[in-house]
Write a structure and sequence with these properties.
The chain is α+β, with helices and mostly antiparallel strands. It has one domain. The chain contains 3 helices and 10 strands, in the order βααβββββαββββ. A hairpin with a 4-residue loop joins β5 and β6.
Amino acid sequence: MNEITITDQMRTAAHLKTKHLHFDKNRGLSKFGSEKKRTIVGYIGEQMVKNFLNIKMDDDEFDYDLFYKGKRLEVKTISCKFKPYPNYLCTVNSHNLDGVHKQAADYYVFLRILNDQSKGWILGCMPCGEFFQKGEFVEKGAQVVKGVQFVKANATVLPIRELYAMEELG
């Protein structure tokens, strides 16, 4: 787990990426563009990964977020109140019942960011296919652990401790 201080530059870049977007809460909580705050957190996560891996270009394709050493990376970021524990879950929403997300990335990179956006953690990475093989599929509305219920979509979850270190990316 790599702790990263979030800079003003990262926050500004994330906010700039939302300038052209139209946010509409009526889209449904599981759809991109329904929640501006969550979208900004995601873009801050991308900035953290770009900085950590020294990526200069911002691909921002539908099927992946960043390109690094021949690998398409999908960055998955959520906000939190404190540093996550290794038993906490990484999540990929799976809108289809087959449990597989349809984006064409090679790796997922998981992050947590403090609610005040002062710092965050790059938790690790995993090839997308392997994530779905190792992870547990959770249907929308189900409780995966006490107090954690998935209300937005079906999801596949895996504990942070099972992720690979970022060095896996080469």
